[in-house]
Amino acid sequence: MPIAPLKTLLQHASDNGYAVGAFVSMNIEVIQAAIAAAEKQNSPVAIRIHPDSRQITRFDTLALVARHLASEASVPVALSLDHGETMADCVDAIRAGCSSVMLDAAEEPLAENIRRVRQVVKAAEPLGILVEAAVGHMEHGAVQTEDDYADVEEAVRLVRESGATILAPAIGNVHGSAHGEVKATPKLNIKRIAELKQATGVYICMHGGSGNPRDQMQAATKAGISLVILFSDIITAYNKAVMSVYSANSAGIAVIDALVPAQAAAQAVIEEKMVDIGSAGQGEAFLHWQRSQAA
Predict the structure, then answer these.
(1) Which one from 15, 52, 82, 257 is the annotated catalytic residue?
(2) What is the CATH number of the domain that holds 81?
């Protein structure tokens, strides 16, 4: 089937008390792992592209792979941009086929955060593209304090004045080890999630989904999380498999011998995450719902 608009996936997830997993995919193997896991678990899935991937692969190249695999999949597959820092990042992602983009200006003063997100909304809204904004302080690897959490009043202002349709708040989540950090154990503030969902009325996205115990993930989805970004647990399993093969063989080994077990390891973790966030088993239900909406 064609790439699904993320908005439809999030609406079904929000209405049915689960979250969509968005798996950060910087190479073809992780894209394949995510979609294969979705097929096995009968789950909606989002492929999340990070701007860093452009150091070696263009957005449109990764998107082409995702669209091809989605066309053969029996479950809905969406495409989304992670942590865009500039308008150019967002435009590049939209051109590649992403139906949601993130402009991450959370570390800027609130007024500047609003201004920069609003610029993206003006370009994306006429195209039906969701725009994600971030609020609060989410340092990589670090436990958040009360001062780091997203302030509800600031979040409401950010959404209202920028027009953002997805909010990524600091709610006790811990950004992962993408830059080599040792990730602290998250402790989600379920009460703050519920307050932000009720006050803003937009889709709430959790970054740093790795490392959260299943009971916390389930509580978070019930409180209002509709989208979960996952990377560290998946790439750790992937990298361990790669390193295991390389350490046991000479430097002349064919790279495919490392990529095959690495993709399988990533898929296994992704399947577990789909169970954690409640999306496993929701793929067919989504398709029935989508058909009823079109009728």
Answers:
(1) 82
(2) 3.20.20.70
